[in-house]
Design brief:
The chain is α/β, with parallel strands linked by helices and about 230 residues long. The chain has a single domain, classed as HUPs (Rossmann fold, 3-Layer(aba) Sandwich). It has a 5-stranded parallel β-sheet with strand order 3-2-1-4-5, sandwiched between helices. The structure holds zinc ion. The site of zinc ion has 9 residues, from helix 7.
Length: about 230
């Protein structure tokens, strides 16, 4: 069976991506990162999602990026996550950006994939309805693919490790509809930047998620402390 490394964060996008990889008949090797994020709630979700889809070991890779600072997502920072007006999300690179995160993650995934002799790495980046992170753009993924082809023995031998980004051009609404088709357990996913009992409903990630559910006409099954005015599905 062909193998794929899947970057699993516990969020909605990475979960739908992992279900797509499963549907594409890959044997999945889930990979998650402890990079100094403020809370581990998303990692609990990641663990559950991984266990539903594969018997293979789920690697939790520790990379203390918070030692460098530079993002309000780090546990070393005081929680200061603010709510951005929905129409402004994605227009500027927000303080939740983690310096070069996808390059670091994809590099680790590339090493893991080559060691496994895997043919693909699945990552749930999207350039539509996104937070404005530069390392989610199509040209970034294309450049990383070129680098991966040059950097690996498999690449030199013409056995490409393909960076698979099935959500790249989908809106959040389309991602949710795709997830429904694949029976994705949205109730097990965690997107909120904060790690409280319920999702906050106000951070950029919660707002983008709720906008997607609103547009899809589907109720988000997770619980929220509050929901923005645009979300009318009760
Ligand atoms: Zn939130």
């Amino acid at each position: 069976m062909k193998k794929a490394v899947c970057l699993v964060s516990g969020g909605l996008d990475s979960t739908v991506t992992t279900y797509i990889a499963k549907k594409n008949n890959y044997d999945l090797f889930p990979l998650s990162f402890l990079y100094g994020q403020q809370h581990e709630k998303e990692l609990q979700s990641a663990r559950t999602i991984g266990s539903l889809l594969t018997e293979e070991e789920h690697i939790f890779f520790t990379l203390p990026l918070h030692q460098f600072g530079g993002s309000i997502l780090y546990k070393s920072e005081k929680p200061q996550i603010k709510s951005t007006p929905l129409d402004k999300i994605g227009t500027l690179i927000p303080p939740t950006y983690v310096p070069a995160r996808n390059t670091v993650f994809l590099s680790i995934a590339l090493s893991y994939a080559e060691s496994l002799d895997a043919g693909a790495i699945y990552i749930g980046v999207t350039a539509t309805d996104y937070s404005g992170y530069p390392d989610c753009r199509p040209e970034y993924i294309e450049a990383f693919q070129t680098m991966a082809d040059l950097a690996t023995k498999k690449g030199v031998e013409q056995k490409q490790i393909k960076i698979e980004t099935p959500l790249l051009y989908l809106t959040k609404k389309q991602i949710i509809i795709k997830g429904v088709e694949l029976n994705v357990p949205f109730e097990l996913t965690w997107s909120c930047y904060q790690g409280r009992t319920k999702a906050c409903g106000l951070c950029d990630s919660c707002q983008l998620r709720l906008k997607g559910f609103q547009e899809a006409g589907i109720r988000d099954p997770i619980e929220y402390e509050t929901t923005p005015d645009f979300y009318k599905i009760k």
